[in-house]
């Protein structure tokens, strides 16, 4: 029974020492002196603000992309015990002692270091030699720009890590496809492909480019499988469903999970609330929630309400009126009705309150029981403080003469009767009998007499909206726009603050309007509703693009005609720049040109039935190009279509793929063009000399990669290899 104990239990482990050595060197190059400089470096001033908000659980919106990358940076702060108390207002500001600099920079540095063994394994999985794979890893190891970008609280190294992990995982899955489909390792690498793709997209939307590339490659591979007569229909269906689950369903689910965690963590009101809807703001702790919590849900006749425009940009604003009237004549000579002004005001104010009145009754209080207002009902809107009725008529608006003026009606007894009936249309209704609800209902007001819709005027490309002149206190213009089939958010309003009016007397009502609401009805948004709104804001919110000192065009990146000064020591000449290894960048461009020229040559020759290389070598050449050249193309060309401020670091994902192409081309030239021993020996000697030169260039620029040692003025001038580079030299 115990016979199995007669023989020892033996565990055999294979360790790739190349991989171990590369990983160790990568960790040393990225982690060495990580806390230096102990000052805010370039975009740390940007990402650090979000880390602080995470630590304090305060909601924010970042239009640069999804929240997963920010959460990873915040994780570093959490592990280091950061309390979020630091003012991120200036590049170069010294970090206070409560900021765990090493911990905040750790995850990007680890991601950058792990890109090196990933590059090695990718070339191995592409069926290239270990020598070529080692060369690719060394080039990534000695690439100054990748080192710089990975040593600070930035996201490019994290993005590149997940992109390379996705590529490696898919290649491992594809290679297992031939002999062990649906095995445990097959499922592992397929699922990891989808997870890595989702993480790449979750860090930055640039990750979507590689994700789409891998989907296209997977689709092409499956198309080839359809022609395999050895596979049954059931087997093909299983392959299709497995890929759909791993490459589409799981990435989508993970993407949603990033937002779920993000919204769960950030439950407190913050400075970015104002661009969100009232419903979203009310779901956050503090801020609007303190005002709206417990408000009546259903708007009834006699309700006292404030109306917020749903558009929320360029700024949030509320329907507003005050005792001032429109000028009798405008500066251009046009006349007005001289009625009481109605505007959209970007601040909370007692003059934002309106009373919903039943046109058939005189009372301005809510009856018992309340009579709710439904879709299609006719109402009058009475200004709470001045008790004048919201009105529009066939008089040109002040700034928009093709639209109708909106005013609060004053009876001048000059044969201009009131036109103050409005039809309530609930835009997001589920049925035609829906009740008008606080915060949740998005409504538009259609004027009964003229069919004009109440609208705030927003001029395209103007960040401040249509501001009235001094007589209108620079508030936003509100007009009556002729009803069309479609609608714009500037025509849609929602009730933000709401109470049931109890005071019929005007003086008592004014006191009531100044008092906070106290009722016991509340409503929270579902996760999907919050996700949809936040995702839409991220995609559509555009900050004003300004020309940055270190911004550049995509054409500048290929030849590295630009650089970015990340940090300058306040007293010495020590500085950090985003500068690449010049020889590596030039070689990557040459490799791309050689690859495309050789591919074109092979294609033309193959068309003529002339085969210069074996079929398996041709398939290897094509598959490597699909990954490396394809990765470079999809991560570079889209920037020519983007209307945003661009920087050199945007090129780094594309550069990484281009660097992987260098040893691929070198091995191909050695294997198929150098056919005899002498050319192979000479070619090998040239490669060794070239790698030595790459190392020398790395050493030359390492002082501005790591920020030390400090260089003299003469040494800094020697580093300006191109006139377009901005090396910082202090005036003596």
Give the SSE layout:
Elements: H1 17-31, H2 44-55, H3 68-79, H4 101-125, H5 130-141, H6 144-150, H7 156-177, H8 184-203, H9 207-226, H10 233-265, H11 278-282, H12 288-292, E1 303-309, E2 318-325, E3 340-345, E4 353-357, E5 378-383, E6 390-396, E7 404-408, E8 422-426, E9 443-447, E10 452-456, E11 476-482, E12 493-500, H13 506-513, H14 527-540, H15 554-558, E13 564-568, E14 575-578, H16 582-607, H17 615-636, H18 652-672, H19 677-706, H20 713-718
Antiparallel strand pairs: 1-4, 1-12, 2-3, 3-7, 3-11, 4-5, 5-8, 6-7, 7-11, 8-9, 10-11, 13-14
Helix pairs in contact: 1-4, 1-5, 2-3, 3-4, 4-5, 4-6, 4-7, 5-18, 6-19, 7-8, 7-9, 8-9, 8-10, 9-10, 9-17, 16-18, 17-18
Low-pLDDT sequence parts: 460-464, 517-522
Q: What count of helical segments does DSSP give?
A: 20
Shape: elongated
Percent of residues in helical segments? Answer: 40-55%
Can you tell me the number of structural domains? Answer: 2
| Radius of gyration computed on alpha carbons | 33 Å
Query: What is the mean pLDDT?
Result: 89
Number of strands: 14
Strand order of the largest sheet: 9-8-5-4-1-12
Global structural class: alpha+beta
Distance between the termini: 88 Å
Largest sheet: 6 strands, antiparallel
SS strand fraction: 5-15%
